[in-house]
Amino acid sequence: MNEQLHFADSGEAADLAAFLGRLVHYDRAAAVRLQAQAGGGALAVFGRPPSFDVVAIRTVRLAATLSAPLDLTVSAGELLESVDEGERAGAVTPAAVTGPPWAGVLPPRGGWTPVAGLPGPEAMAGALAAAVAEFRARDEALPPQHRTRSERDRIGHEIWSRTLGDTELPLRAVHAAQSLGFLRPVRATVPAAPGAPEPAALFASGGWLRLRTPYGSVATRRPGGLGALLVRPV
Questions:
Q1: Is 139 strand, coil or helix?
Q2: Are 181 and 16 a contacting pair, CB within 8 Å?
Q3: By CB neighbour count within 10 A (0-12 exposed, 13-18 middle, 19+ buried), where does 175 fall?
Q4: The pTM of the whole model exceeds 0.85
Q5: Which residues have a Cβ under 8 Å from the Cβ of 217 and sit 6 or more positions away?
Q6: Of 6, 91, 110, 220, which cross-links 63 as Cys (Cβ 3.0–4.6 Å)?
């Protein structure tokens, strides 16, 4: 049965639509997993953009709590088509689809502890710009006979698997956060208003790392870590 979702405001609807639109841009057949607790005030939307090897999470505030828990996997494109960014600020869940493998293994809900060492926004942006510039330079330097998809993938894997600063966070996770619109500048107020968005932060839970920003999160497996996997029926 289709579920009518009512978001807190049009801004929440617009942010969800932007997130879904980016997922569909990378994969027209993208699926997302939706989860909300009965009586809770938020909807969690999980997606996995190809090539980045991360799980992206966008939380949407709800205007009305759900009477029953919601947990299903749907087409990102069909959900995007149902989003109303106007005064009604809502969406209708499409029919469930067979979930891709990643949707059955999600990051844990709790147990996240802060991890020190995450560089500031300017340093993160600089690291990403340097990685992109290096990839382009190495790609352009390839002789014609070596300019193949596999060689480009090898170079990309080498660059994006590097870690950020003194953390274990791979650059591909930061790249994913930027590509999904999660690393937008936060409009600061002086003094900071109560409840103002917090800056980006890094957390760990078992075998996972999570880069959290005011606009969404990306979670990725820690190097060699398979602990604390949460397998949920799709």
A1: helix
A2: no
A3: buried
A4: yes
A5: 56, 57, 182, 210, 211
A6: 6
